[in-house]
What we know:
The protein is α+β, with helices and mostly antiparallel strands. The protein contains 2 helices and 8 strands, in the order E-E-E-E-E-E-H-H-E-E.
Amino acid sequence: MHEDIQKPKREYMTNAQGQSGYAWQLPYSVSKSRHDQDQKGNLVSTYDVVFSIDIGNFLLQSTEFKKFVADTAIDGVNRVLAEHKEKCSTDYKIMKNLKCKGGEPGLLQIRVETNNPLLKNIDVD
């Protein structure tokens, strides 16, 4: 989680069938691929997906929200992989007490909004 990622937003909505619930926006950033090993020692590509630090409280409260965040992360990686006509496996498990697979996360560029026209939408490390 990172403080420079935009905060999540939720809006209470009712659909055409009369069902009500929250519609979420979860901004995130996906890293470039890096190499790692799976349990069998095979070389695999790994991606870091970073969300706003503000989602931490929601993750602690709800198993469904954890699944929603994991599915959003997989969707984000699939968007990157789609450029190469590849797709990420949706077979995953949420691991306790593991912040980043393979040790420390690598540097990640995060898009920052600014009112300065010279610096408009630059990426910062």
